[in-house]
């Protein structure tokens, strides 16, 4: 009886040793999945920003204080609508001063064109009138003396005195006429006309500066950005507002440099916005980037996608999500990307065949984030080994665990 009692622990220990040996000698277990047939779409998911398809910026043309802001964000405006007004007090004073200068020079020119200053002209004309009367009286006296000489009632000496007087009157008349002529010369006219042109130019310049204070919309559209507030000081070139058409939008989609080869014009794209879950906008890639730019830690190309926005629910400036469908295979043999390996420079997979694994080189077609199309090397139904820490070798015995 005692002998049988000791046989029990011996049997247990022996069984444990046998089980440990079996476990130690058992082939390693690997996870596998079955290659399947079905559609596979290569979708590139990234982010981007919305812009109007057509827009124009309204900027300050001169420095000054923003006196009035005539629009607000979301407002529809027409071509030429007043967007803002910069304080014009300084330039209104300049216009008035320039116009006063024009009036002054024009008055001087009018006076000169009429022969000179009114007082000078009146004095000369008065003297000429008096000379004319003196001449008329002297001519009458000379005629009378001439008749008397014919009757021997007067001498020729008396006639000579009158003739000398007429000659003196003529000299005085010529002197006055010369004086009148030099009151306004051609040179004087040229100087005044030049001053008038200069004054009129000053008026035009002041009015242009005044007009620059009224900022107008260069296009019909919606105000989607307004930067300053009334009372802010503006420098030339400062942005006041952006106006654009928002019924059609251009989305700048940021594609990481290594992924740009997966994108081409005409590819469909779906745009979503976190602020409106469930809403989608569909469009197509329109333009590829002309350069690579730095965006934080990323090197990206800005791909343009045009989308309709008839209901105007997607605002310009929104940060969006974009999914570009670059390629599609209708009936593809697909496997998870984690099954792909590279050994000795060759891409391939391990396939479970019976109780062993076999190496197969493969060719890859369409891929997405998780799966890849296999065009050569794997058939539908093959058991493909998934990623494992076990070092596999062709012909190696394994225990297979379905995924």
Structure report:
- With 403 residues, the chain is of the alpha+beta class.
- It folds into four domains: 26-40 and 331-402, conserved putative lor/sdh protein from methanococcus maripaludis s2 fold, CATH 2.40.420; 43-54 and 247-329, Efflux pump adaptor protein, beta barrel domain (Elongation Factor Tu (Ef-tu), domain 3, Beta Barrel), CATH 2.40.30.170; 56-87 and 213-240, OB fold (Dihydrolipoamide Acetyltransferase, E2P) (Beta Barrel), CATH 2.40.50; 94-208.
- It contains five helices and 21 strands.
- The strands form three sheets. Strands 1, 15, 16, 17, 20 and 21 form a six-stranded mixed sheet that branches.
- A hairpin with a 2-residue loop joins strand 15 (341-343) and strand 16.
- Helix 2 packs antiparallel against helix 5 and helix 3 (118-150) runs antiparallel to helix 4.
- It is rod-shaped and about 180 Å long.
Topology:
Layout: H1 2-25, E1 29-34, E2 36-59, E3 64-69, E4 76-77, E5 82-86, H2 89-113, H3 118-150, H4 156-181, H5 186-212, E6 214-216, E7 221-226, E8 233-234, E9 239-256, E10 268-272, E11 280-287, E12 292-295, E13 298-308, E14 319-336, E15 341-343, E16 346-353, E17 356-361, E18 363-367, E19 371-376, E20 383-385, E21 399-402
Parallel strand pairs: 1-21
Antiparallel strand pairs: 1-20, 2-9, 2-14, 3-5, 3-8, 4-7, 5-6, 7-9, 9-13, 10-11, 10-14, 11-13, 12-13, 14-19, 15-16, 16-17, 16-20, 18-19
Helix pairs in contact: 2-5, 3-4
């Amino acid at each position: 009886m005692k002998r049988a009692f000791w046989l029990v622990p011996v049997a247990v220990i022996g069984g444990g040793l046998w089980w440990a040996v079996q476990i130690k000698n058992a082939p390693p277990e690997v996870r596998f999945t079955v290659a399947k047939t079905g559609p596979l779409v290569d979708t590139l998911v990234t982010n981007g920003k919305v812009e109007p398809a057509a827009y124009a910026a309204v900027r300050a043309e001169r420095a000054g204080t923003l006196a009035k802001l005539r629009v607000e964000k979301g407002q529809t405006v027409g071509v030429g609508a007043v967007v803002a007004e910069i304080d014009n007090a300084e330039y209104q004073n300049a216009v008035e001063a320039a116009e006063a200068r024009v009036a002054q020079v024009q008055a001087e020119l009018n006076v000169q064109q009429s022969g000179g200053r009114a007082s000078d002209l009146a004095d000369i004309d008065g003297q000429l009138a008096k000379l004319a009367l003196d001449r008329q009286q002297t001519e009458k006296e000379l005629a009378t003396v001439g008749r008397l000489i014919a009757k021997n009632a007067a001498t020729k000496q008396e006639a000579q005195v009158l003739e000398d007087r007429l000659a003196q009157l003529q000299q005085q008349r010529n002197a006055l006429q010369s004086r009148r002529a030099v009151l306004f010369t051609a040179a004087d006219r040229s100087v005044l006309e030049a001053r008038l042109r200069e004054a009129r130019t000053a008026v035009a310049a002041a009015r242009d500066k005044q007009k620059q204070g009224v900022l107008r919309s260069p296009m019909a559209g919606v105000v989607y950005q307004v930067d300053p507030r009334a009372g802010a000081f503006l420098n030339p070139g400062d942005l006041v507002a952006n106006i654009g058409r928002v019924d059609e939008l251009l989305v700048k989609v940021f594609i990481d440099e290594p992924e740009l080869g997966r994108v081409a014009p005409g590819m469909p794209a779906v745009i979503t916005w976190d602020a409106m879950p469930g809403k989608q906008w569909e469009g197509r890639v329109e333009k590829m980037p002309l350069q690579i730019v730095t965006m934080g830690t990323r090197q990206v190309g800005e791909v343009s996608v045009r989308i309709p926005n008839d209901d105007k629910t997607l605002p310009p400036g929104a940060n969006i999500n974009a999914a570009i469908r670059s390629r599609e295979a209708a009936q593809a043999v697909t496997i998870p990307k984690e099954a792909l390996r590279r050994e000795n420079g060759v891409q391939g997979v391990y396939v479970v065949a019976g109780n062993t694994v076999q190496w197969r080189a493969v060719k890859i077609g369409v891929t997405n984030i998780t799966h890849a199309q296999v065009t050569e090397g794997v058939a539908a139904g093959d058991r493909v080994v998934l990623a494992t820490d076990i070092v596999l070798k062709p012909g190696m015995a394994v225990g297979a665990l379905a995924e």
